[in-house]
């Protein structure tokens, strides 16, 4: 309950979230003289990297790219220990950033924002937290992430299960003791694929319940040498250049050719080279893997062969091989020993397409073909992606309109940064921006820089209200769809299109036109005096 006797603190800007986006937003807002404060649900900074503590959690973007580029001092003092950093190491980095830049005093931890209401009279946002605290600000900057609204599917009988149930995105901080236990995992996306080898090593027995097989690439993770860290430190300018000019926000080695312009031998050799390097580089070795069905099929078949070769039992391999959607159309996975885990004696794979799940009982998962006992149930079932983190807050714009209702047929935004009918709301990596399709940290830096640049300009011009014009929003949404339709992304039932959430509108949510082109567009809008926005 809110107490009207308690004065409501007022700021220039309120930030929601203290992950990579929120931390940088606080830093930049304060640096440019804006009074600001953030609310964060977790008890510490880090966002995704605070919550995702499941065994095997690590980033699939290389550490030397998955870090801020805004501060030469920060860049110079931090060493990464592995090519792909673990969750604990990335969390340490986020904590270091918070401490180094003295951001913690501006953050209320353990505080979830429940309501955000635009008040036209005062031209401010009034926020109310779940525990009844309030705060007011001219601008509301959401930095809630794209994959923070974890999703527990409505599995029949789930409530009757007597053992432990853990979602990968809400993993207990103290870990889970799996020794001697029978463990079941539902879900084989990035989280499941990372967790399975580790769970199999710890549990007495692991049963993996797969609905859709995924394509996964070997990480080939390894320790980073002092020399590699040293070199990266001396290459900050290159990093920044790639962030500006690169399609994905980092350097990608590509042949610059179509997969269809080379012969079978050359194509295969190129795939083999990238397979040996590991990580996601193989996706861009040719220019058209994500845009041309035939080019895509060459890579898809190459990866299918690798899966078949890694798995001893041909029947298990058949279940693991994706056949009905293009590689990369669902977010590509990166693993360490995922497929070979199915060669372990203590691991079974259940194909839920062949034997649909009937119910969860108090001690088992029952399908149409069998009953699989379990003492621990791991839900690697993903997220209400991109929109969920925003619509789980009751956000009310002009005339009391609800963001959740306004987006019930799919999210609509201008540049992924602003929403018509929601003045002074600025969404870091919102739907309609490149975010999840590019290096997230670069996407966050670009958005925050643009937002802070915008607020500075408004302050200089004595403007205190900015709102996306509906027609600019319509044309941006049309452009996002048009670009998506030139790719193969819409051809899979992925979280990019909301397919993983029952009843969610099927709309391709991120912008697939590249961070470089997107950045140019945003800068051009700013240069033009914020074309497409109504300022007053
Ligand atoms: O979630 P997902 P995730 N019954 O949605 C299945 C990022 N990430 O947490 O495909 C049975 O990908 C679902 O099946 P289907 C990354 O961007 C990054 O794994 O819908 N199964 C699917 O197999 C990633 O893409 C990193 O048929 C059900 C799985 O659960 C994103 O987060 C690590 C079901 C969900 O897969 C999300 O990944 C982890 C049901 N009712 C995550 N409901 C790295 O950086 C869902 N499923 C490495």
From TrEMBL:
Gene3D superfamilies with a match to the protein in the record: FAD/NAD(P)-binding domain
Cofactor(s) this protein requires: FAD
Pfam families associated with the record: FMO-like
The EC number(s) this enzyme carries: 1.14.13.-
Keyword Cytoplasm: no
GO molecular function, one term: monooxygenase activity
Enzyme class: oxidoreductase
Keyword list, A-Z: FAD, Flavoprotein, Monooxygenase, NADP, Oxidoreductase
Domain of life: Bacteria
Family that this chain belongs to: Belongs to the FAD-binding monooxygenase family.
Protein name as catalogued: Flavin-containing monooxygenase
Species for this entry: Streptomyces pulveraceus
């Amino acid at each position: 309950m809110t107490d009207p006797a308690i004065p409501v603190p007022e700021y220039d800007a309120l930030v929601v979230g203290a992950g990579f986006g929120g931390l940088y937003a606080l830093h930049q807002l304060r640096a440019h003289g804006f009074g600001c404060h953030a609310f964060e649900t977790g008890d510490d900074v880090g966002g995704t990297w605070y919550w995702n503590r499941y065994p095997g959690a690590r980033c699939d973007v290389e550490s030397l790219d998955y870090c801020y580029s805004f501060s030469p001092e920060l860049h110079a003092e931090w060493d990464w220990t592995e090519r792909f950093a673990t969750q604990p190491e990335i969390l340490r980095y986020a904590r270091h950033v918070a401490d180094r830049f003295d951001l913690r005093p501006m953050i209320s931890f353990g505080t979830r924002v429940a309501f955000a209401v635009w008040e036209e009279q005062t031209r401010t946002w009034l926020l109310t937290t779940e525990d009844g605290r309030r705060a007011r600000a001219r601008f509301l900057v959401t930095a809630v992430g794209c994959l923070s609204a974890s999703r527990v599917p409505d599995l029949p009988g789930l409530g009757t299960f007597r053992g432990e149930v853990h979602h990968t995105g809400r993993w207990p901080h103290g870990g889970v003791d799996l020794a001697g236990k029978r463990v079941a995992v539902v879900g084989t996306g990035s989280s499941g694929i990372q967790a399975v080898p580790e769970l199999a090593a710890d549990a007495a027995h692991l049963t993996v319940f797969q609905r859709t097989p995924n394509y996964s690439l070997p990480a080939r993770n390894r320790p980073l040498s002092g020399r590699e860290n040293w070199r990266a430190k001396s290459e900050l300018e290159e990093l920044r250049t790639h962030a500006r000019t690169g399609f994905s926000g980092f350097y990608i080695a590509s042949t610059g050719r179509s997969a269809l312009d080379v012969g079978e031998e050359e194509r295969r050799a190129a795939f083999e080279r990238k397979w040996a390097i590991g990580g996601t580089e193989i996706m861009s070795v040719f220019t058209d893997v994500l845009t041309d069905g035939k080019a895509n099929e060459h890579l898809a078949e190459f990866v299918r062969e690798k899966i078949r070769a890694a798995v001893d039992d041909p029947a298990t391999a058949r279940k693991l091989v994706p056949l009905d959607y293009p590689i990369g159309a669902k977010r590509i996975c990166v693993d360490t020993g995922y497929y070979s885990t199915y060669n372990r004696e203590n691991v079974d794979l259940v194909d839920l397409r062949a034997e649909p799940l009937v119910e969860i009982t108090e001690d088992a998962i029952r399908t149409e073909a069998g009953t699989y006992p379990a003492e621990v149930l791991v839900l690697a079932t993903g997220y209400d992606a991109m929109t969920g983190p925003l619509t789980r807050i009751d956000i009310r714009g002009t005339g009391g309109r609800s963001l959740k209702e306004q987006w019930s047929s799919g999210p609509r935004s201008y540049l992924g940064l602003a929403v018509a009918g929601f003045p002074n709301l600025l969404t870091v990596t919102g739907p309609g921006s490149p975010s999840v399709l590019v290096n997230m940290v670069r996407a966050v830096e670009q958005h925050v820089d643009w937002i802070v640049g915008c607020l500075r300009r408004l302050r200089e011009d004595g403007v205190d209200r900015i709102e996306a014009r509906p027609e600019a929003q319509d044309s941006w949404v049309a452009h996002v769809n048009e670009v998506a339709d030139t790719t193969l992304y819409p051809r899979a039932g992925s979280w990019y299109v909301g397919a993983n959430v029952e009843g969610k509108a099927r709309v391709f949510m991120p912008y697939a036109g590249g961070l470089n082109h997107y950045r140019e567009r945003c800068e051009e809008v700013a240069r033009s005096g914020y074309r497409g926005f109504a300022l007053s």
